[in-house]
């Protein structure tokens, strides 16, 4: 008697593993963003303190310096975020490739040993 479930145990296990991995990647990205946000906040606070220490006649020069420093920090944050997103995309591709390889191996095994697919049982 054929199993009436649309997926095999291995397929369900692979899907659960994929979803778990995706969730872990998302959690890591959220933590990375939180860390970057904290760094940006700390940098902004440092910039405010530095600005307050500037002599009144040097405010314009301080403004230029502080703006450049803040822009540099934003660039660093953007670069870190881009690297995180690229890493996520690579990880996703690797997971999908592993799933495809596993499915190909399963199909090859079934064909080699004459194992029928669930759909073949239903049509008999």
UniProtKB/TrEMBL annotation:
Residues 86-105 are annotated as: Disordered. Residues 86-103 have a biased composition (Basic and acidic residues). It comes from Tanacetum coccineum. This is Uncharacterized protein.
